Amino acid sequence: MGVLNVTPDSFSDGGRYLDRDAAVAHGVEMHQRGADLIDVGGESTRPGAERVEASEEISRVVPVIRSLVAERVPVSVDTMHAAVASAALEAGASIVNDVSGGLADLEMIRVVAAAGVPYVVMHWRGHSTEMDSLAQYDDVVSDVRDELLQRVEAAVAAGVAESSIVLDPGLGFAKLGDHNWELLQRLDELVELGFPVLVGASRKRFLGTLLGNRPPDGREDATAAVSALAAFNGAWGVRVHDVDRTLDAVAVAGAWRRGHG
């Protein structure tokens, strides 16, 4: 899953693809390089980010999604707003990636259910302005599992097909660095729930901390390492900024796991 942030303030590439033509060109390029999905988002979820009105988010993402779909690029929409998800699906997006797991907008799961599309349910406890204060767990893996399953139950009760749900542990969202590493080290405990698991570690600050407070653009090799290990341990997908490094890393993990190339 290639990241395409159509925002002025994302932590890594904010402002770089706010122009529609630049965004579409980058999305097409990532797909041509091998990304299976281009994940288009119009609201930053970096720590401390302020909310964006749904109307503004729609104006950012819908033209880009429509243009990408016209180029036969598979698109997911990264949003917490039901109205944005609905507009994106109408424009041709085929997956909804909701970092709030349906908690930020209670209409979201009804929109997804009505559309009958795959739904990425991420573990989330609160908005970016408050999420660092919510990083308190008895056992982070058990707690994340239980809270994800509660969101699955709510989605299924609203009519979302269980077979269309993808789980995301939400690395960095109400998680401290050690919480992220423990979730990755025990990724099998999420995989064994039977749902596809998406891992989004790309350029995140816990990688920067590991590498001596390295800035986001210097975290690509660490991201590729996480991608390889996630693939080796059964992840369905990884959400990344640098498609090339990740494809190489995942190819190695796959060959290693199979015992042949």
From TrEMBL:
One of its GO terms (biological process) is folic acid biosynthetic process. Pathway: Cofactor biosynthesis; tetrahydrofolate biosynthesis; 7,8-dihydrofolate from 2-amino-4-hydroxy-6-hydroxymethyl-7,8-dihydropteridine diphosphate and 4-aminobenzoate: step 1/2. Its EC number is 2.5.1.15. Transmembrane segments: none annotated. Keywords: Folate biosynthesis, Magnesium, Metal-binding, Transferase. It comes from the Bacteria. It catalyses: (7,8-dihydropterin-6-yl)methyl diphosphate + 4-aminobenzoate = 7,8-dihydropteroate + diphosphate. GO terms for cellular component: cytosol. Residues 1-251 form the Pterin-binding domain. One of its GO terms (molecular function) is metal ion binding. Pfam families: Pterin_bind (PF00809). Its cofactor is Mg(2+). Belongs to the DHPS family. PANTHER family: FOLATE SYNTHESIS PROTEINS, FOLIC ACID SYNTHESIS PROTEIN FOL1. This is Dihydropteroate synthase.
